[in-house]
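Table S2 (text version). Query chain:
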Amino acid sequence: MSWSPILGSMFQYDKAAASSSTPANGYVLKFYTAADAAIQMASAKDGSGLLSSCVLDSSGYPLNGSPARFTPFIDQEYKIALYSTQALADADTTGSAEWFIGPFDLPVTLGSSIATGKDFTTLALAVASTEIADGDVLNLAERISGSGGGAFWDAVLSSTVTENTFNVVQCTGVGTLSLVLRVGPEVVTREWGCVIDGVTDDYSALDNAYDFAVAAKKPLHISGGSYLVETSLAWGTSNAYVKGVGKQNTIIIRGASISSALATIAITTGDWITFEHFKIDNNNNDGQALSLSGVNESTFRSLAFLDVDVDYYLEIDGSSSNNFYDLFGQNCDQLINVKGVSNQQDFYDCGGNALSTTLPAIKIENCFRVNFFGGICEADTKCLEVGSDVDGVAFYGTYFETLASSGALPDIIVGETTGGNSNTVSFQDCYFVQNADKGAAIMEITSDARNVRIQGGRFSRSIAGTDDLITVTGGAEIIAVENVDTFTISSGIKFFNADSQIVKGLRISNITDINANNTIDIGNASGCQVSAVSMLVIIGASATRVSVEGSPGGAITDNSGLVRWLDTGGLNEFSGGYHSFTERVDVAAPAANKAVTYVRDNGAGKTQLVVRFPTGAIQVLATEP
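Corresponding C-alpha cell output:
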C-alpha cells in the first residue's frame, strides 16, 4: 500500500471558507471516499499513526494532538471536508461542512525508494539546503517569511525541468536539483512568489501565475494583500477565472511606471471570463483601471476601483453580452464608458462617485442594448451622456446626483450634436438630484434623441435653481414623461424647440404634486405653432400651470379648471384640430383687458358657448339648437 501527502494548499487558508470571516483555528479536517464514506488519514508516509480527523491551527495547518504541525497522507482517491466543530465531523454529515470538495486522484504514489518528506520554514532555506535528494517532498511553512504561501514542493533533477523562479526553482545547496511547486485545484499567488507588501513590484509573479492558471484550466486565487504592479497586466484568454478574497482585502495597485494610455488590467479578447472579489487602486495615476476589448459572454462581480485620474475606471470597447455586478468606483475622475459597437452590456448595482468637472461620469456611445439596474452615480458636474449611434439604453431605479455648481452643464445629456441618433433611451423609477444651482437642467434631450421615455421616479433640487428640470432642444421625437412625482422648481419642465424644430409626439401623463410657476413650457424664441405639434396629451395632471407658448405665438394655461388664451400679437394656428369644452358653472369676471370663453347650461338643458368680460357681462356666442 502506498501513501501520498495531501496538498497543503487545499486547506492552509487564512480563513476557513472563502465566504466566511471565521478564522480556521479549531476547524476539523476529514477525508472521504468518492462515495462519501469516511476514511482515515496517516500521520506518516508509511501509513502509521492513523487518524479519523484532525484539527487545524489558526493558519490552517493540521495538528496531531499537539502544537506540532503534520502532513496528512492518503492511500486512495479522496474528498476533503472541513467542519466548524468536532461534533459535526464525528456525525459525518457532509451537508453541514464549511466546504466539501473532490474527489481527487492521488497527486503522486510514493514508493519505498523516495526519501522522507522534510519541513522548511521558507523556500529560501529549502533551496539552500544540502540535505535534500531527488524525490523528496518538502513542506514549506511559508514561501517568503511573513508573506505566507506554505505549500508542498517536489525535489527533482534539474535536467528534467525548466526553471522560471516562480513554480520551478533551482536549488543552490544541491546544484543538480530543482524544486517544483505542487499546484492544487487553484493557482495561489502567495505560493507563486508574490511579495504582497504594496511596495515590491509583483507584476512578474502575478502575470506568470495568471498564464499558468489559464493554461492549466484552474482558477487564479489572488490571496489577500496589496500587489504593486509597474507594468500593465495584459490578461485575455477565454475561460480565465480570477478571484480575490474581497474587494477590501485583495488590492492591485497601479504603479507610476504604467503609461496613461494603458489600463492597469487590460483584457483583450476572450470569452466566458470571470473576474471577482478584488480592488484596483490606480493610486491617483492617469489611465483606466480595467479595460475590455473583444470580450464576450463574461462576468465581472464585486470589484472596487479607487483613485482613477483622467479616465474611466471601466472602458468597454467592441465587446458583447457581458454582465457586471456590484462594481463601485471611489474618487475616480470618470466611471464607465461603453463604446465601439459594444452590445448587450448589463450592469447590476454598479456606479460610484466621479470627480471630473467637465466630463460625464458614465458615457454610452456607438452601441445598443445597454441596461443599468439600480446603482448610484454621483458626479461633480455631469452624471451621464448618452451619445451618438445608440439604440436601446435603459436605466431602472438608478440614482443620479450632482454635487457641485461648476461647469454649467446638464446632469444628464441624451443625444449629441454630432454623429448618429440616440434611439430608445428610457429611465424608469430613477431618482435625479441636483445639489447646486449650476445654471443648467437636470436632463437635456437634444435634437439627436429619438424615443426617450421617463417613467416614474423623481426629479429634485436641494436648493432653488435658475434653470429647468428637463430641457428638450431641437427635433427630439416621441418624448414620454409618465408618473413623475414632485417637481418643485420655477420652471418644472421646459421643452424648447431650437431653430423652429417642433417636438414630435409629446406625452405628459399622470404627473402628481407639481408646484411650479411654469410646470410644462413648450416654445421657442421665434414662435411655436401648435399645429406643428403632432401630438400633445396632458393626462391626469394636477399641474398648477401648463403652457404652450412663443413670441409671436400664444399660451394655453390650465389653472384649476380655468382655461385662458393669452394672445401676444402673433398668429395662433391649429391645423386639423379643434377645441373641446365641457359645461361648467359661470366663471368669475377676468382681470382687465382679458376675456374668458367657456360653455354652460342655459338653464333649459341647452349648451351655450359664451364669453365673459372684465365688467362681468356675458356675451352668448352660440346656443345648442
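Notes on Table S2: DSSP finds three helices and 57 strands in the chain. The two ends are 114 Å apart (CA to CA).
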